[in-house]
Design goal:
Largest sheet: 4 strands, antiparallel
Radius of gyration: 25 Å
Number of strands: 9
Strand content: 5-15%
Helix content: 40-55%
Order of helices and strands: HHHHEEHHEHHHHEEHEEEEHHHH
Shape: globular
Structural class: alpha+beta
C-alpha cells in the first residue's frame, strides 16, 4: 500500500533531496486521487524502468525520430475504399500494451460505449435496441485518425499525470502526420506553439491515433466521453436509447409519436455535437429505419426480444457445410477461391464461433456438422 511518509523516509535515507521527494509525492497522489489502481509515472526515466524499455528508445519514439515505428498496410472496406492499418514495432507495441494494461484498462468509458471494454459484446450493444419501432444509424469518417495527440494528452492529464508525462504518453500512443498529409490544410492540426522545453519534441503537425495499436481502442472511448454524454442527453430528451460501438452510432425509440421529421431533427443535433468535437459524420451511411422495416445493429437482427443472427449469416454457414459434404474440402476450397483447405476451415470455424456468441444452440448444431467433415489433416 502506498505510504507517502514511508516513501519520503526511504528517499531521505538514500540521499534524495526533500524538495524532489515532495514533488514526487504530490504527482503520485494526484494520480491516486483520480484512480488508486493507476501506476505512478514521475518521469520518462521512471516509465523506462516500469516498462523495461531503454530511455533512448522511448525518446526516439516520442521525438518521432524512429522511421520504422509503424508498419503500414491497407485492407479493402466492404463499403468501398481502403482502411489503413499501422502495426507498431515490437518495442513500441510492448510499451503500448503496458499503457493499456496498467492504465487504460482501469478506466471506464461512458455507459453508452460498448466497444473495446471488458464484459461487453456486440450482442449487449444490439440488445439495447431490441423491439424498437424507429432506428437511426450514424457513422464517423476515419474515426481513429480524427483523434489528435492533443485529445489523447488531455486523457492522460485528466488521469492525474503531470503535463510532460501526459505529453510523452500521448506521443507513445499516436503516430506522426507526414509532411504532405491532408491535415496540413486544417488549422486545428497545426501545433499552435513551439515546444521549447525539449527541442526534439517539436513537430509542425499533430499526431493522431493509429488503427492497429493496442492502446487506440480504449483511448478512443475515453476521448469520446463528453461527446457520448451530450448525445445521451439528446437521446433522453427525445425518448430514445443511445449506443456507440467504436464509430457505429445507434439511436432508437419505441414511441408511436416519433416520425421522420423528429428523426431528421435528432440527426442534425447529433451531427452538430460530432462536428463540435472534431468528428466528420459519414452522411452517406446515415440511415433511418422506420416501423415495419428490418432493423440491424452491428450485423445482428434486433426486430425481436433478443438479438439474433441475420439470415444471410446462417445461409453462409449452411452453404459451406452443404458443399463440404457434397464435394469435399479440397474441391470446395478451390471453388470458393481459398488459398488452402486450412484457410477455408479457419474461416468457417470463425463463423461458427461468432454464431456461438449470439445463438449458442444453433452454433452447437453447426459445430457438430463441422466436426463430421472429412478434413484432410
Amino acid at each position: 500500500m502506498w505510504s507517502p511518509l514511508s516513501y519520503k523516509r526511504k528517499g531521505l535515507e538514500i540521499g534524495i533531496a526533500e524538495e524532489l521527494l515532495d514533488s514526487a509525492i504530490e504527482q503520485t497522489e494526484n494520480v491516486i486521487e483520480e484512480n488508486p489502481d493507476l501506476p505512478s509515472i514521475l518521469t520518462l526515466n521512471h516509465l523506462s524502468t516500469r516498462t523495461k524499455t531503454s530511455l533512448e528508445t522511448l525518446k526516439a519514439y516520442i521525438s518521432r525520430d524512429e522511421p520504422d515505428a509503424y508498419r503500414k498496410f491497407s485492407i479493402a472496406k466492404r463499403s468501398g475504399g481502403r482502411r489503413f492499418i499501422r502495426v507498431p514495432a515490437p518495442q513500441l507495441a510492448h510499451v503500448q500494451k503496458w499503457i493499456h494494461h496498467h492504465i487504460l484498462s482501469h478506466i471506464s468509458p461512458h455507459r453508452a460505449s460498448y466497444g473495446f471494454r471488458k464484459r461487453t459484446s456486440i450482442k449487449d450493444c444490439a440488445r439495447k435496441h431490441c423491439g424498437a419501432r424507429w432506428l437511426i444509424k450514424l457513422d464517423i469518417v476515419n474515426f481513429f485518425e480524427t483523434i489528435s495527440e492533443i485529445q489523447v494528452f488531455s486523457v492522460f492529464q485528466k488521469l492525474g499525470y503531470q503535463p510532460l508525462v501526459a505529453f510523452e504518453l500521448a506521443r507513445l500512443c499516436t503516430v506522426s502526420s507526414d509532411e504532405y498529409s491532408p491535415r496540413r490544410n486544417y488549422g486545428n492540426w497545426w501545433a499552435f506553439k513551439s515546444y521549447k522545453v525539449i527541442r526534439n519534441y517539436e513537430q509542425k503537425l499533430l499526431g493522431y491515433l493509429p488503427q492497429g495499436a493496442s492502446s487506440s481502442p480504449m483511448l478512443s472511448n475515453l476521448v469520446m466521453w463528453k461527446c457520448d454524454e451530450q448525445i445521451s442527453k439528446i437521446a433522453k430528451k427525445n425518448g430514445m436509447k443511445y449506443s456507440r460501438y467504436s464509430d457505429d452510432i445507434a439511436l432508437s425509440t419505441s414511441s408511436k409519436d416519433f416520425n421522420r421529421a423528429l428523426a431528421k431533427q435528432v440527426i442534425q443535433e447529433v451531427n452538430r455535437v460530432l462536428s463540435q468535437y472534431g468528428y466528420l459524420p459519414h452522411f452517406k451511411k446515415c440511415k433511418v429505419v422506420p416501423p415495419g422495416a428490418r432493423k440491424v445493429i452491428l450485423g445482428l437482427n434486433v426486430d425481436g426480444a433478443v438479438p439474433v443472427l441475420q439470415r444471410e449469416t446462417k445461409d453462409r454457414i449452411r452453404q459451406h457445410l452443404y458443399f463440404l459434404k457434397k464435394h469435399g474440402p479440397v474441391e470446395h476450397a478451390l471453388a470458393r477461391g481459398f488459398d488452402s483447405v486450412w484457410g477455408l476451415q479457419s474461416h468457417l470455424r470463425g463463423l461458427i464461433d461468432y454464431a456461438k456468441a449470439i445463438e449458442p444452440e444453433y452454433a452447437a448444431k453447426r459445430l457438430r456438422e463441422f466436426r463430421e467433415i472429412d478434413w484432410p489433416f
